[in-house]
Design the sequence.
């Protein structure tokens, strides 16, 4: 039974890998089940044992790389040095870089960034406890800004031919989070 499970898992992964190779080359609207099974070396009925269509394959990939509340690293609270653990967030991103770089890139799916932020936001908001409704709206806006910036920076970093060393990029993100964008821009301009 265990061997059967291993074969099943491998078949599913082969279909995912074949889909991903195609998705890296062209938009999902130009990918068919036939394309995927030809690349993977299976027949259509095998594909349909695992997925209903090519969109379901993309959804499976997205679900597997979006951190859940259980898999997110612990965040320091307001008394801690930094609320968002940049290194852990970057590590999560790096583990799935081949997917994130495409999904968050120019040809990626804009809805993916929204799904990613939607999953992470409650954890960050929870570390600050309950707040009056006016403060909740303000906090949600700040978290949206922070996550959009972090996701954008990480996607940009992965798309560079020669990105700055990762430790420098993480230090820069931490500095921006602690001191603000304008402070960093003024410092970089020698002001």
Sequence:
């Amino acid at each position: 039974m265990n061997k059967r499970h291993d074969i099943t898992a491998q078949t599913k992964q082969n279909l995912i890998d074949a889909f991903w190779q195609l998705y890296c080359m062209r938009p999902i609207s130009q990918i068919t089940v036939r394309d995927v099974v030809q690349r993977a070396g299976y027949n259509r009925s095998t594909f349909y044992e695992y997925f209903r269509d090519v969109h379901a394959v993309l959804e499976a990939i997205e679900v597997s790389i979006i951190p859940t509340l259980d898999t997110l690293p612990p965040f320091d609270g307001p008394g801690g040095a930094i609320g968002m653990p940049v290194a852990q967030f970057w590590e999560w991103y790096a583990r799935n870089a081949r997917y994130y770089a495409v999904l968050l890139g120019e040809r990626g799916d804009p809805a993916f960034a929204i799904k990613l932020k939607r999953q992470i936001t409650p954890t960050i908001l929870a570390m600050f406890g309950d707040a009056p409704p006016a403060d909740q709206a303000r906090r949600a806006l700040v978290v949206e800004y922070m996550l959009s910036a972090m996701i954008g920076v990480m996607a940009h970093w992965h798309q560079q031919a020669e990105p700055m060393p990762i430790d420098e990029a993480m230090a820069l993100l931490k500095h921006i989070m602690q001191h603000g964008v304008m402070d960093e821009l003024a410092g970089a301009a020698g002001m």
